[in-house]
Amino acid sequence: MTAAVIPVKSLAAGKSRLLPELGREDLEALSLAMLEDLIRALMATPGVSRVAVATPDDRVAEHARGLGAEALHGPDPGLNAALDAAPGKLALAADAPLLVVLGDVPGARPGELQQLFDAAETMAPGPAAVLAPSRDGGTSALLRSPHGALPSRFGPQSAARHREAAKHAGTPLREIELPSLAIDLDRGEDIRAFLSQGDDGRQTRALLAKLGGLPGST
């Protein structure tokens, strides 16, 4: 069984690229709704035994605990540093795996998240990683076994950066396209794509409906 970590920025700083279409108060509510959807999806994934949220934000930490997740709450050292510190904060064994899922994929489906674990089981014994790319070249989810199999390289074009890190570390890396993880909500067009697909991410959908949607989303 595997611990899953969701990194979430300070609510005051997150989702800045959506600001032209949503105000700050609405963006903060959106971040919390997306987090709730993702925590629930991870908790329903058979391969996940623990869910933790790495955040510098008091409200995010409180929200995560209220949903039954652990909170890795403290000063923000940067995204990748926070993720690489998570195994120690969770007291994971050196050979324990770790799943990282970014907090802006509220449509994630438990069945597709489980496919990351299923793919890992088909790989040869030894260190390995499985990556689910986002449609913009990022990394929506990364399963590493063990957690130190390769360093975190999240950020712009991180799928390519994780490929390079895996090559440098000599760690086999498998990529699988998962539709529910392909759309990360960074821009208005991402929200419109999210709303046009399926019905997962119910809290996020309900909030967007309450806000009246976005221009061009209907």
CATH topology: Spore Coat Polysaccharide Biosynthesis Protein SpsA, Chain A
Which class best fits the helix and strand makeup? alpha/beta
CATH architecture: Alpha-Beta Complex
Secondary-structure element string:
EHEHEHEHEEHEHHH
- Provide the residue-averaged pLDDT: 92
Q: Supply the CATH superfamily name.
A: Spore Coat Polysaccharide Biosynthesis Protein SpsA, Chain A
Rg computed from alpha carbons, rounded to a whole number of angstroms: 16 Å
Helical element count? Answer: 8
- Count of the separate structural domains: 1
Distance between the termini: 41 Å
Helix content: 25-40%
* CATH class type: Alpha Beta
Number of strands: 7
3D architecture notes:
Helices cover 39% and strands 17% of the residues. With 218 residues, the protein is α/β, with parallel strands linked by helices. The chain has one domain (2-210): Spore Coat Polysaccharide Biosynthesis Protein SpsA, Chain A (Alpha-Beta Complex). The protein has a seven-stranded mixed β-sheet, sandwiched between helices. Helix 1 links the parallel strand 1 and strand 2 (48-55). The longest helix is centred in the N-terminal third of the chain and has 20 residues, at 24-43. The N and C termini lie far apart (41 Å). The model has no long low-confidence stretch (mean pLDDT 92).
